[in-house]
Amino acid sequence: MSDQTATTGSTDELLAELQSQVEAYERGSATAEYSPQGRILRANDAFAELVGADPAAIVGTDHRSFVSPEVAASAEYTELWDQLRSGGNSTGEFRLVWQGSRDRWIRSSWVPVKNRAGQVVKVVEHALDVTPGKRAAADAQGKIQAITRSQAVIEFDLGGHILDANDNFLALVGYARDEVVGRHHRMFVSDQDAQSQAYQEFWRKLGAGEFVSGEFHRYGKDGRDVWLQAVYSPILGIDGKPWKVVKFAVDVTEAKTRNADFEGKVTAIRRSQAVIEFDLAGTVLEANDAFLDLMGYRQEEIAGRHHRIFVDPAEAGRPEYKSFWEMLARGEFHSAEYRRIAKDGSEVWIRATYNPILDADGKPVKVVKFANDVTAEKLRNVELAGRLAAIDRSQAVIEFDLDGRIRTANDNFLRTVGYSLDEIVGRHHSMFCTPEYAESDEYLGLWAALRTGEFRSGRFHRLGRDGRDVWLQSSYNPILDLSGKPVKVIKYAYDVTEQVRLEQRLSVPV
């Protein structure tokens, strides 16, 4: 074998190996060859599929047909082909106007091929479809922009120093950007918190790549309180290690202030009233000390038991009791005075409200009862009612307004004067007096005194129906309102007509 044959053989083998490598590369890559003017000379199936064209029909097509008219007319596009024709390589991402569907993005490497004279004879493009990654990046970028527009965002290095903050965050804390960038996060916390072990642990966790979320108390400019619902999110590099921290936050200061106001009011109520909570079926969840003291139980003796332990068994068995809890479970409020039974069996009267508590969707989740002990008041009222009933049964009773007009009267009084109630209501007390007495200074003085709240009592001559004489042992009692002002007059009387007649007969000389 001559040296020339050996050299030729080696060259042929080298060309065959290079050709094999090119074919192997093209099998896994979208490849096209162009003339220096940008017309396709050849394209493999992968490239034809990428641009949405027939592999045979694509030859002779100008590259500019694959890009938008705006791109084709741009200076950058002209410079690309000038660069390639002059022998310079180029790499970049391009948006294709794809015939089959939405736009596609490709990342291409452009390599000019030269002849032995150094002239560019064609350009080879190796393209990769990066549309999914491009869309994912655009989606992620859109989401980040949406979050940035709607939330307060601030970035820190792993040591807690501020790198940047968006306008929402700056408006929230009242600082300008140059007042916070480079400073430490501790500018937003109290000195006590900044020196605490918990604060050091907070930044240790973030530096280790652990996210931290919750509700945080911070201070804005001039020390004003700011409450944030926030997430501190470590950002990982390509090596999987954190390199900065991004905080996304929502201002909850107003809600926190409102909740503090609510909690303060509830705390005040719980200090002053007996409070107990139930589930919607009536099972006890918890009760405060005032309720436990009122009913004589300990917490563990009632938790988990039904409300009926406080109710007379006869009442608990009625349909009305079942309906009562069904009403509360529907979210209906109930308020009244209730008779309840304490642990020792004693009777307890409470003035209470049963309040269904609703969730964010407006659905009842539990019932809270606020109660005041009115047992003593109830007993006192019962006693007073009993006394008034006894008086009503034994005495003649009539009520007047402060001008002396009749409001009502009981049966004893009506029998005494011989009228029906309809015949006297609305008329003046003077209907029971002689005309001379009704016009006297004494009579006018009586009502003037009563209007000022003065009590009057004595034996009074009055006229019944048809002008018959009636003598009454009476007391005129001004009734006062809560401020001590007279509002009406009640007269309690005994009929002493027969006694007066007897006295008159006995006083007549024989």
What is the topology?
Layout: H1 3-27, E1 30-34, E2 40-43, H2 45-51, H3 69-72, H4 75-85, E3 90-96, E4 104-114, E5 120-129, H5 131-150, E6 152-156, E7 162-165, H6 167-173, H7 177-180, H8 191-194, H9 197-207, E8 212-219, E9 225-236, E10 242-251, H10 253-272, E11 274-278, E12 284-287, H11 289-295, H12 299-302, H13 313-316, H14 319-329, E13 334-341, E14 347-358, E15 364-373, H15 375-394, E16 396-400, E17 406-409, H16 411-417, H17 421-424, H18 435-438, H19 441-451, E18 456-463, E19 469-480, E20 486-495, H20 497-506
Antiparallel strand pairs: 1-2, 1-5, 3-4, 4-5, 6-7, 6-10, 8-9, 9-10, 11-12, 11-15, 13-14, 14-15, 16-17, 16-20, 18-19, 19-20
Q: What can you tell me about this protein's structure?
A:
The structure is a single chain. The protein is α+β, with helices and mostly antiparallel strands. It folds into four domains: 3-131, PAS domain (Beta-Lactamase, 2-Layer Sandwich), CATH 3.30.450; 151-256, 2-Layer Sandwich (Beta-Lactamase), CATH 3.30.450.20; 273-378, Beta-Lactamase (2-Layer Sandwich), CATH 3.30.450.20; 395-506, 2-Layer Sandwich (Beta-Lactamase), CATH 3.30.450.20. The chain has 20 helices and 20 strands. Strands 2-1-5-4-3 form a five-stranded antiparallel β-sheet. A five-stranded antiparallel β-sheet has the order 7-6-10-9-8, sandwiched between helices. The protein has a five-stranded antiparallel β-sheet with strand order 12-11-15-14-13. The termini are far apart. It comes from Paractinoplanes lichenicola. Residues 153-183, 275-305, 397-427 form the PAS domain.
